[in-house]
Design brief:
The protein is α/β, with parallel strands linked by helices and 244 residues long. The chain is built from 9 helices and 10 strands.
Length: 244
């Protein structure tokens, strides 16, 4: 039996996910790259809903869903409207709080914007629509830019903040796994792309992979699906491939 491969995770895993990694021959070290803080003042968020009629809700992260649920539990009224998610995992988080959501085949901000644009004419016949994007302070700009180019009003409702952490990067893992562009930035700020470190680099999706490729200047492996179990199996397969 081959020796376990050492992987550095930039976010927490569940006990079940750690057990799966061990079954796959992966020795996990967890060093969280970011910390999430949710807002607790909802007055400005509530004020954003005044004088709007046709609304669409857009979510580009599961933390955005968690922030929205805190907002809803605060007893704030908001108009009804269709709900869109960037991908299946975010849609699942919405479904768990009773909000079925649509999501695009291309699971990123560009795909989400294009799907919303194509649906607006059918849903509202070209009437004015406001998109409420529940997001974090480090949100990417693709969704807003594409929707704004189509003269669609977008309101970014920041319901959580992402704080970069200083990571302890002792040792030399065989691979580092990233879940967000913010995690890539935290790794960079912690000296992860210096000191001759050459682990294999893995990203949960295309957006993270683009950021990781720019920062590292190296090849990045991208998970076939934005799912941790699929991600871990993919990492194990890549690390165990024979070197040519």
């Amino acid at each position: 039996m081959s020796e376990p491969r050492n992987i550095l995770m930039t976010r927490e895993l569940t006990d079940e996910q750690i057990a799966l990694a061990e079954e796959l021959g992966l020795r996990v070290r967890i060093e969280p790259a970011i910390e999430i803080r949710f807002r607790d003042d909802w007055l400005s968020v509530q004020g954003a809903f005044r004088n709007v009629s046709n609304v669409i809700y857009a979510f580009t992260s599961q933390n955005g869903v968690k922030g929205f649920e805190r907002f809803r539990k605060a007893g704030v009224d908001f108009p009804k409207g269709p709900v869109y998610a960037v991908g299946g995992r975010t849609a699942e988080a919405l479904r768990e709080i009773g909000l079925p959501a649509l999501w695009p085949e291309r699971q990123d901000g560009v795909g989400l914007a294009e799907t919303i644009i194509s649906d607006i004419e059918e849903l509202y016949g070209g009437d004015d629509v406001t998109i409420f994007h529940f997001c974090g302070n480090r949100r990417r700009d693709e969704l807003r830019q594409i929707l704004s180019q189509s003269d669609i009003t977008v309101m970014d409702l920041v319901v959580y903040s992402t704080e970069l952490k200083m990571m302890k990067l002792d040792g030399e893992p065989d691979a580092v796994l990233f879940y967000s562009p913010s995690a890539v930035q935290a790794y960079r700020n912690s000296g992860g792309f210096q000191k001759g470190r050459k682990p294999e680099l893995f990203a949960i999706g295309d957006t993270t992979a683009r950021e990781l490729s720019i920062e590292s200047g190296r090849h990045v492996h991208v998970s076939p699906e934005p799912d941790t179990e699929v991600f871990l199996r993919y990492v194990a397969n890549v690390l165990n491939e024979p070197v040519e």
